[in-house]
Design a protein that fits this description.
Helix content is 43%, strand content 7%. By secondary structure, the protein is mainly α.
């Protein structure tokens, strides 16, 4: 799973990724678009992990947050899921 400790900003520079969506929202050194982009990546990664787990391929590591927290953070930023109104985890 890709939920690693670094993220790449639009300018191409690597920054230390926050440990969870709540910490991400509190960051002042990242713009809204960067936060939404990271949350969308986390959402995708969590959905991929859910599918893998259903297929008996559990992730070797799990984040300390879940999909609901990511979706709540997206809503707090006025953004939506890239997977809204879909019938499967993958869209």
């Amino acid at each position: 799973m890709r939920l690693d400790s670094t993220s790449v900003t639009r300018s191409g520079s690597a920054t230390e990724a926050p440990p969870d969506p709540r910490a991400l929202l509190a960051r002042n050194d990242m713009g809204r678009d960067e936060k939404v982009e990271l949350l969308h990546q986390w959402e995708f990664d969590l959905r991929e992990a859910m599918v893998a787990e259903e297929e008996n391929m559990p992730a070797s590591e799990s984040p300390n947050f879940g999909l609901a927290e990511v979706l709540d953070a997206l809503r707090a930023l006025g953004a939506t899921s890239r997977f809204h109104d879909v019938s499967t985890k993958h869209g």
